[in-house]
Design brief:
By secondary structure, the chain is an all-alpha fold. It has one domain. Helices cover 75% and strands 0% of the residues. It is built from 13 helices and no strands. Helix 1 crosses helix 4, helix 2 packs antiparallel against helix 9 and helix 5 runs antiparallel to helix 12. The protein starts with a helix and ends with a helix.
Length: 273
């Protein structure tokens, strides 16, 4: 949650400077290089070539929601796009409950509901819902919804890969898949990109934060309850919204402050239930 939250917040100016696809490609190279070195002890899992191929394809498919997310934060407020994208656990938790026999007690269900409700509440004007920013294409919310759906499915299908290949190698293969897809996208657009930008300190920092978030998630789903891990990992709105207010002077209205407080409460309940 923390590392993804920081990565999301700092990705806003980077996506505006380099472009969404270009940022994902440059960041992916950094992330893949770090994970390649960290995953040496897990390379024996490469003999499971079917799982390797499936995880690579999952990474390629995972490029769609992360690209949508980048377009969203590039053109809209972090405090709007991040919370909606953070509703992805609703899909992940439901699928895990149905197909993976993941057990979630009543208190945890309530806490997950609070977190997801707070994510939604940040972005919707319940008094004037017809005029809500959700109905404006320029708001970035359509991109956030695509990211939420894509990430909800992505995190669910990542579980088998993590169980088979281990957390480090599965994280590496996913990041390689995203990087390949981003590189292909940049090539299709005939965009010129300087590989020297890989060493831009902000790119390196964003890549390391993303790397830590991905590994933390894969370790979490390997050893703990998927529903709880997915809900916590996607509660980045708390970090990103606060950073958006502090760093980018995005004003937090009273409704957003209440939603953040509810989110903190939900996270606390999940952590101690």
């Amino acid at each position: 949650m923390v590392t993804y939250g920081f990565a999301n917040a700092f990705a806003k100016p980077l996506s505006q400077k380099f472009g969404a696809a270009e940022l994902l490609f440059l960041r992916g190279i950094v992330t893949s290089a770090v994970l390649a070195a960290a995953s040496i002890a897990s390379y024996h899992y490469l003999q499971n070539w079917l799982a390797v191929i499936a995880t690579l394809f999952l990474g390629v498919a995972g490029y769609i929601p992360v690209l949508a997310f980048m377009h969203g934060i590039k053109n809209s407020r972090l405090g709007i796009v991040v919370p909606i994208a953070g509703t992805a656990p609703l899909i992940t938790v439901f699928l895990a409950f149905l197909f993976l026999n993941v057990q979630i007690n009543l208190v945890q269900w309530i806490a997950i509901g609070l977190v997801i409700f707070a994510n939604i509440a940040v972005s919707f004007d319940f008094k004037n819902w017809r005029q809500s920013s959700a109905f404006q294409l320029s708001s970035g919310i359509p991109f956030a919804l695509i990211a939420a759906l894509g990430w909800g499915l992505f995190y669910f299908f990542l579980v088998p890969s993590t169980k088979t290949l281990g957390p480090w190698l599965s994280a590496l293969l996913v990041e390689v898949g995203v990087t390949l897809a981003a590189g292909f996208h940049v090539w299709l657009r005939s965009k010129k990109i300087s590989l020297r930008d890989i060493f831009h300190r902000s790119i390196v920092g964003n890549g390391i934060l993303t790397c830590l978030g991905t590994v933390a998630f894969t370790i979490g789903v390997r050893y703990y309850n998927l529903g709880i891990v997915a809900a916590l990992a996607n509660s980045t709105a708390l970090i990103s919204t606060l950073l958006g207010a502090l760093l980018f002077k995005e004003r937090l209205h009273i409704k957003e402050k209440i939603a953040v407080a509810i989110m903190i409460l939900g996270i606390a309940i999940i952590s101690f239930a």
